[in-house]
Design goal:
By secondary structure, the protein is mainly α. Helices cover 70% and strands 0% of the residues. The protein is rod-shaped, with a radius of gyration of 25 Å. The termini are far apart.
Length: 63
């Protein structure tokens, strides 16, 4: 095997898994960010803005 082909083969062995893991992490982080935004919006929709508790953990009907 020629040294040029061997070096291309070696670069492929190293770069393909690295690129795959990088793309997988990017997709995973983007999904997690979208899930956090959706959860935050759902939480805000459930709680009124004028809750009685100082932190806003309880709704108006909670005593």
């Amino acid at each position: 095997m020629s040294s040029a082909y061997f070096s291309l083969f070696d670069m492929a062995i190293c770069s393909i898994p690295a690129l795959g893991i990088g793309i997988w992490q990017l997709v995973s982080v983007n999904r997690e960010i979208a899930r956090d935004k959706a959860g935050e919006q759902a939480r805000k929709a459930r709680l009124p803005d004028d809750a009685r508790h100082a932190v806003g953990e309880h709704g108006l009907d909670d005593r």
